[in-house]
Amino acid sequence: MIEPKYIVVGNSSDDPFAIDVAFAMGQSEDVADLISMKRFANSEFCPRFISDEQDFKEIGNKLRGKSIIIVSTSSLVMSRQSLAMRTLMIARAAKENGASEVILVEPDLYYSAQDRGPRLGLGETVTERARTDLKKFDGQLFTAKLYGQMLKLAGVDRVLTVHNHSHSVQMMFSEVFEGKFHNIIPYDIYVDYLLNSNIVKYGDDGEGLALCAPDKGAREFVKEMCNRLNLSKAKFVLLDKERTGERKVEIKIHSESEWSLDQIKGHDIVLFDDMVRTGSTVVKSCQLLKQVNPGKTVFAVTHFYASEEGRVKMANTAIDEILTLNTIPTVLNRDIQGRLRKKMVVLKIEKWLALNLRSILELPISQPEGEEADNSLYSIDMSSKNLRWKHKIWLSEQLKALNHG
């Protein structure tokens, strides 16, 4: 059971992701029974934590000593701007009704693409900013910083997100929230799936497997994946991309790559990235990799918010399968998957997220009442019907043998 001081809510009453996180945390109360999402006739939103109508002694203090956990994800029916405003108001409502702490769990942190402004000092980048980069943001604001400051002003004390790509956002949020910013990386999810499914084939020590980073920004992540897989003969390939236009990129092997393309000929290849939008880079990368006749090319991506254009591009035969997480839960919608449906696997991370949250809050890891021990990190939504779990494939083969015997 979740400790009584912690209350999990979403920024909409029927958000399945928030409900699943609450359950994984051990919360028995339904999110919809804890907070009411009031909407006035003029369309204005006003959240209300539900209280006993007969209780006149604790007015404004219902949440005294409580920690409110707001789970915020994208939606098909509301814009991210609307959801962000809801989060701000829920956080303030919690604080104005006595909450001692407000924690925001936003797997795909909003406004992270708008991670710097038009002048030096507006965004801490890894390399020195060129004039062209400054010009790119000319006339607009450093939106991510405004969002972080607004969250803090509204009453948010701690923020947890997943695989944020921006050094600037990470530094800024750490500063605004005085170190209480947690960017958790899903290494263990990917490692578990690659070791226990047949999405790729390789030898006992990783022979025939190559992991690929599409650019230097993804290099450290993919190198750490190699280390954690502990497959001594798996190979690591680094690509390089050069933008020649707004949506045009040229891909080649990076001069610092440990292995050449010829050296991974015939390998199953997993290309990792943190996000995908238009799909231009990943398709061109996989087309380059296909030149060495790999066994299979798998694109593993944490945040899948591809546009219609992106879904059309990624239907290209250069990508054999797509492995993604549900940090943006709309990816589970078959209409969103579109023509990619038959080559997409979604790993649902609510339980893994709850385990990490418990660890950060230094809470004991416990199993919900009535549940059997379950050490899995995630559940799976497979659009295709292929068997991928190694032990299930073995069982299937055994059953077939028995039936034929």
Question: Which key phrases capture this entry?
Answer:
405 residues; Rossmann fold; 2 domains; eight-stranded mixed β-sheet; 12 helices; 22% strand
How would you sum up this structure, described in words?
Helix 7 (219-229) links the parallel strand 8 (209-213) and strand 9 (235-245). The protein is globular. The chain has an eight-stranded mixed beta sheet, sandwiched between helices. A five-stranded parallel beta sheet has the order 1-4-5-6-7, sandwiched between helices. A two-stranded antiparallel ribbon has the order 2-3. It contains twelve helices and 15 strands. It folds into two domains: 6-184, Rossmann fold (3-Layer(aba) Sandwich); 187-348 and 375-404, Rossmann fold (3-Layer(aba) Sandwich), CATH 3.40.50. It starts with 5 loop residues before the first strand and ends with a helix. The mean pLDDT is 90. The protein has 405 residues and is an alpha/beta fold. Helix 2 (80-96) runs parallel beside helix 4 (143-154) and helix 4 packs parallel to helix 5.
Give a brief rundown of this model.
This protein is α/β, with parallel strands linked by helices and 405 residues long. It has helices at 16-24, 80-96, 131-136, 143-154, 167-176, 187-196, 219-229, 280-290, 308-314, 334-337, 350-360, 390-404, and strands at residues 6-10, 35-39, 45-49, 67-71, 101-105, 158-162, 181-184, 209-213, 235-245, 248-253, 268-276, 296-304, 321-325, 344-348, 379-382. The chain folds into two domains: 6-184, Rossmann fold (3-Layer(aba) Sandwich), CATH 3.40.50; 187-348 and 375-404, Rossmann fold (3-Layer(aba) Sandwich).
